[in-house]
Automatic annotation (TrEMBL):
Keywords: Cell outer membrane, Membrane, Signal, Transmembrane, Transmembrane beta strand, Transport. The lineage of its organism: Bacteria, Pseudomonadati, Bacteroidota, Cytophagia, Cytophagales. The keyword Membrane applies. GO terms for molecular function: efflux transmembrane transporter activity; porin activity. Belongs to the outer membrane factor (OMF) (TC 1.B.17) family. Residues 1-16 form the signal peptide. This is TolC family protein. It holds the Pfam family OEP. Transmembrane segments: none annotated.
Amino acid sequence: MKKLLLLLFCAHLALAQSQKLTLENVVLLAQNQSIASKQAATLRKTNYWKYRTFMADFKPQLSLDGSLPSFTRSFVQVTQPDGTVAFQQVSNNNSILSLGLSQNIPLTGGAVYVQQQLQRFDNFLNNTTLYNGVPFEVGLSQPLFRFNQMKWDRQTEPLRYAESTQQYIEALEKVALDATGLYFDLLVAQVNLQIAETNRVNNDTLHKIALHKLDLGKISQNDLLQLQLSVLNAEKDLASAQQTAEVASLKLRSYLNAQDHDPSRPQAFELAIPTQLTPFIVDIKQALHEAFTNRSAATGFRRQVLEADRDLDKAKKENGLNATLDATFGLSNRGLQPRDIYVRPQDREFVEVRFTLPIMTWGRAQARTETARANQQLTVQTVEQAKRTFEQEIYTQVTLLDMLRKQVKLTADADQIAQRRYQIAQDRFKLSDLSVTDLGIATQDKDRARRDAILALRDYWQAYYTLRLLTLYDFETNQKIHYN
């Protein structure tokens, strides 16, 4: 953690002063201040509070309900004993206050509650007041033979939350991968710009030497024209490289959400070439194990199978006998004063069983069950195919990383050889021992070798961060990737 804070501080300091950045600096900046990283943090917070809401549903809930006041003044229709209708004037207040404590029962899908209730009735026409209340009542509402949503939620929701936590880590690793791509886009552009500037200077120098050789009769007019064309092409390549580097710099700055002291004159990034590769071995079995342990996709596989089993269970149970048991036991009383309610209260009982039994559905129940069963089988098959694709992706990335590490060394060696060969060719041309055509070939080989070396580094580092993204494991330090 201290190392991370130190690197982050150094990255900000470097950005503020001279704009000199390494790949590690850019990755840290992107993961801490880019819009993409902030969106990932916000989504993580949202998922955290969703899970907290889910967990709270299984804790005791204390609530105070009521209607206070509940005043009515009107004429109401009242049927008389002889069947006639009379319109009676009423003016009253019928207020109710109830304090209840409830608890869901995930194992059975029911709920138990305890409550206390007080009711006051004021008749303003004859100036009387009555009280009615329930000093104590305990009740149970229990579904019978029905689908238990709470039991399944207790299995799927923790997986969903774990999945969202892993998705946050993946999002930051994806930010690192995207930042690496933009870093190398700019680095390649800067290398091309350096090549173009060097070629312009060298071609201009060689053209001046060729003019002197032409006077001495040591070079043909055709070779001189070829060198003049090389000078013009170098000028054109330089202008194109400058524009490409500027665009790449703006893209990287935008992604990093970097702020300049003077927006009208943004400082240019100066990127270091990340040639230092830490040697480490990636075991394919370990990579597969870490991927299936850490990745959100692996957690999602388990959740999807559970949800398919849940839907099948729901289709089976909701197509048969559905019943609900409601039972309460308590005490109740009435009186002229609130305290009268607690004096010798009477028993209060209520039991009810409501049920629905489908008798004739014309095959609808079976069709729903078989549809859910087919979907469950399809989900299992889809997950199995996704697992195999996942494994293949990990295997490919591990072998690719090892191959690209070798490519980096080979292209670096080729770059050094090409640079030395060009220097020798340039010296030979100055001594009139090499043709313009051979010099041009040496120049092209030099430029191609330098670009290939940078592109090999880009491919390696992108493969490196892709493997981190696929496994959420740091094979350099041999530890799982975590972010606070």
